[in-house]
Amino acid sequence: LVPSAACRSGCRLADMDKINFANGRLLSRSEAEGSERAGFRFVNGRQEPEAREVPLESSSSSGSTKVAEHATEPSMVPSGPAASPYETILGRNAQGHQRRLVLFDGQCRLCMGFVSIITGRDSSDLFRFAPLQSGLGQKVLAWHRLPADLDSVVLHREAEVFTHSDAALEVLGDLDGVLSGLWGLKVVPQFLRDWGYGLVAKNRYIMLGHSSISEAGDAAIEAKLADRWEPDPNCADHICKS
Predict the structure, then answer these.
(1) What is the Cα–Cα distance from 152 to 198, expressed in whole angstroms?
(2) CA atoms of 145 and 135, how far apart (whole Å)
(3) Helix/strand/coil percentages in the chain, nearest 5
(4) β-strand 65-72 against 25-27: which pairing, if any?
(5) For residues 162, 168, 173 and 177, what is the CA-based torsion angle, rounded to 10 degrees?
(6) Mean local confidence (pLDDT), 109-130
(7) Which of 242, 226, 231, 241 is nearest to 102 (CA)?
(8) DSSP readout, 160-188?
(9) What is the pTM of this model?
(10) Per-residue pLDDT averaged across 31-59, rounded?
(11) In angstroms, what CA-CA distances link 1 with 26, 40, 56, 206?
(12) What is the distance between the alpha carbons of residues 103 and 84, in angstroms, rounded to a whole number?
């Protein structure tokens, strides 16, 4: 698009940098300047908002707040799971991968057997553990908006959460050896997997009875506990529904 003869004759060379095209229309100098003042720039003939600069606040050693250097505010924020406050607690393994947290029933012998299997086949040191009934377990359940008395193993993985058969299979998929192949059972419809999981969970105390972390005395489990909980021998109640 070429400026008209009237514009060519009426515009001084020094003002040519103020002549812009927006959506195929020639803007006058005053229009262009007004758009710039409003926070727009011109790219390939289109008006686009400029990135805004916002001050970052940083705390000094004296506790006062001061304005740091400006940082450009992105026009779009990447989508994804919101960061949880528990990733720092869990840390990273030697390869730099974020660790996962497995929550289990702290007085279930079968559940502790599952945790023992994980610790024995976790050469990458990806997993940490906590009873569902522990302070950390309850906080993680609340953060994911899950019931405090949830009767399921729980996998917290980088702000995502898995329960029931999904949790068990996602954990197995990260283990060493042939057990990782059990992840392929996810092709089975979830309602069937969860039915089988629920059947075992409902009868787990009948099958193997009760236990506790201290009673199990498994040093490998205790070394990877993010929090612990012991059942009160004087109280028959516990948080899980079973």
Answers:
(1) 8
(2) 15
(3) 40, 20, 40
(4) unpaired
(5) 160
(6) 96
(7) 226
(8) EEEEHHHHHHHHHTTSSGGGGGGGGGGGS
(9) 0.65
(10) 47
(11) 9, 21, 43, 83
(12) 16
| Position with higher pLDDT, 83 vs 183 | 183
Task: List, in order, residues 6 or more apart from 217 with CB less than 8 Å away.
Answer: none
Beta bridge partners of 20: 27
Measured between alpha carbons, how far is 157 from 235 in angstroms, rounded to an integer? 33
Extract the tokens encoding 215. 């009673």
Query: What pLDDT sits at residue 41?
Result: 52
Question: Helix H segments across the chain?
Answer: 5-10, 29-37, 87-90, 109-120, 135-143, 164-172, 190-202, 204-208, 213-216, 219-222
- Phi/psi for 193 (5° steps) reads -60, -45
